[in-house]
Write a structure and sequence with these properties.
The protein is of the alpha+beta class. The chain has 2 domains: 33 residues; 118 residues, Pleckstrin-homology domain (PH domain)/Phosphotyrosine-binding domain (PTB) (PH-domain like). The chain contains 3 helices and 10 strands, in the order ααββββββββββα.
């Protein structure tokens, strides 16, 4: 070793001892901040639900819905005010994401959600079906979500679904569109 390197090695000091009290204080402060932000988000969710309390109770499936035309398993990504893909509806559990089993019959669309409230969309309430790229909180490739527009009370609602087998979603759009046109034709 050269004398210059020996002088440098002799001058080096060990690292300072960690100030544990300060570090624990920062960690506790950060955890308190995260808990506060989570509490604010929860309050916002509850506030949105109270603003939407005028939404009627969700319809339930009839005892005899009829033979299934189509079935699908996948994910329910939420519901929004029709045409406003960021205006999430949280009343009656419509904002809760979950697994979903959809069954389309002549009576309407049965939405079964394990761990969340099930609901039924009567065929008379169906307005539109389309493939889209997003709904509040979920954006996919173009045509990745099945969006079903339906009337509930005096409000139009868009509900977003993603099939486990996305290739079958276009069949849902075609079948729902045909049912909607048939229903509109018989209502006149």
């Amino acid at each position: 070793m050269t004398p210059a390197l020996m002088i440098l090695a002799a001058e080096q000091k060990s690292a300072e001892v960690t100030d544990w009290a300060a570090r624990i204080g920062w960690v506790v402060g950060l955890l308190a901040f995260v808990a506060f932000v989570y509490w604010l988000m929860r309050q916002g969710w509850k506030w949105r639900g109270s603003l939407q309390s005028d939404l009627p109770e969700l319809p339930t499936a009839p005892v005899e819905p009829g033979e299934a035309k189509l079935t699908m398993t996948g994910r329910y990504h939420g519901s929004t005010t029709a045409g406003q893909w960021l205006d999430r509806i949280v009343a009656h559990g419509l904002g809760t994401r979950s697994r979903v089993e959809l069954t389309l019959t002549d009576a309407g669309l049965a939405v079964v959600r394990p761990g969340a409230q099930d609901f039924f969309v009567p065929v008379q309430a169906l307005r539109e079906a389309r493939l889209d790229k997003g709904i509040a909180g979920k954006v996919l490739a173009e045509g990745g979500l099945l969006i079903v527009t339906w009337a509930h009370g005096d409000k139009l609602i868009d509900s977003g679904f993603r099939s486990d087998h996305a290739a079958g979603q276009s069949e849902w759009v075609d079948t729902l569109t045909h049912m909607i046109k048939t229903t509109e034709g018989t209502a006149r």
